[in-house]
Design a protein that fits this description.
The protein is mainly α. The chain has 17 helices and two strands. β1 and β2 form a beta hairpin.
Length: about 400
């Protein structure tokens, strides 16, 4: 009876929290995240000293800051992963509300740091990007609304989540930050699909997205400039995309050697948006494939564990977090390889950036909390035993 209720990992109520957490956590996913963070520090050592030298800073200034913010992110990930789904939901709702208020204040108090998009608050010693903290909170909030809509007599949660999505995407587009807006919309679409959305409705939403893209192209110089640059058959070798694609080409299979890369001297964002170009040039395709494999393991393992989850809220939220994590990595690498238009999106746990890595640690902690083995057990184990 104990195995029937608790599945293959017995959990006793009197267990200390750390042993119970260690038995139920997905160690492969956690290990892959730690490896990505380690790779990020290694690539930071290669990519950031030239920029630090140009700015008159210590050679490893950015690496030290990345290690500090990354340490905070790993602590946040571990602490969040120990929480119950209910506690994670409460944390996410509060975090979402705070980030949403900060997002609305950007037009009045934010700054663009000369990049043409008002996305940050400058604190003097650091900067904060509210959209990074908004994403995990939004995913959990939308999942909660969708799950509530499935209950008998529950609210129209899917409609409320859609309205919330449109409001957030509108604020992001006004910055403009079309990359984050697309990621938020994609996360909602994945959760809506898992919640049982009609295919006709999803097709209509896709058509609306295309229409909005055409409207943005016609009315936003920032958006049109990036699309035109992507569609142009001639790539200016002195642009960031030109340097990045050339570095990837020069790296070949094994790379030019540690410290021998040249792209870090030309790219101002070599340690952030285009860090995969540094990896490809100095360590070659084999390093890039290893990085892609780590992201793949995290996403696939999380989705496989969520397939066995009976709680719809946990299933929706976990799926949204895992897919958003994987798609963000795909977008970043796709931009560097010129497979996608420039988005200004970081590579999770590898790119430099305090807001992105701390928010990523919180999001991954939520995903680890949702994919833990819980006393309710795996529905497949229960069905198999009942069929005997």
């Amino acid at each position: 009876m104990t195995e029937m209720v608790y599945g293959t990992h017995p959990i006793y109520q009197g267990d200390p929290i750390l042993p119970r957490w260690w038995r139920t956590i997905d160690k492969w996913t956690m290990g892959c995240v730690l490896m990505l963070f380690g790779i990020g520090l290694l690539l930071g050592l290669a990519s950031s000293p030239p920029l630090a030298s140009k700015n008159g800073l210590e050679p490893f200034h950015y690496v030290s800051r990345q290690a500090f913010f990354g340490g905070l992110a790993m602590i946040a990930m571990l602490l969040t992963s120990m929480m119950s789904p209910k506690m994670v939901r409460r944390l996410a709702v509060v975090g979402f509300l705070l980030a949403f208020v900060a997002l609305m204040g950007l037009p009045f108090f934010g700054t663009d740091f000369g990049k043409g998009a008002v996305r940050w608050y400058s604190l003097g010693f650091a900067s904060v990007q509210p959209s990074e903290f908004l994403k995990p909170g939004f995913v959990v909030m939308a999942a909660w609304l969708m799950a509530a809509g499935l209950e008998i007599g529950g609210p129209p949660g899917r409609m409320y989540s859609f309205i919330l999505t449109i409001v957030i995407c509108t604020f992001l587009a006004l910055q403009p930050d079309f990359g984050q807006a697309c990621l938020v919309l994609f996360s909602w679409g994945v959760m809506y699909f898992v919640a049982g959305a009609p295919m006709l409705l999803l097709a209509g939403i896709c058509a609306a997205v295309v229409a909005m893209g055409m409207f943005s192209y016609a009315n936003s110089e920032h958006f049109a400039r990036r699309i035109d640059g992507f569609m142009s058959p001639d790539l200016d070798p002195t642009t960031q995309l030109g340097y990045a694609t050339n570095a990837i080409r020069e790296g070949g299979f094994f790379g030019v050697g540690v410290g021998e890369g040249q792209v870090k001297w030309s790219l101002p964002d070599a340690h952030t948006d285009f860090i995969i170009a540094v990896a490809a040039e100095e360590y070659g395709l084999i390093c890039v494939l290893a990085i892609i494999s780590l992201y793949g393991v995290i996403v696939v393992r999380s989705l496989l564990r969520l397939l066995k989850e009976r709680d719809p809220f946990i299933r929706f939220a976990g799926t949204g977090l895992a897919c958003a994590f994987g798609v963000q990595a795909m977008i970043n690498m796709g931009v560097a390889a010129r497979l996608l238009p420039a988005k200004g999106m970081t590579l999770p746990f590898i790119s430099y950036g305090g807001s992105s890595i701390i928010a990523g640690g919180i999001a991954m902690g939520m995903l680890l909390a949702f994919t833990r083995t819980r006393p309710q057990g795996e529905i497949g184990d229960i069905l198999m035993r009942r069929g005997r």
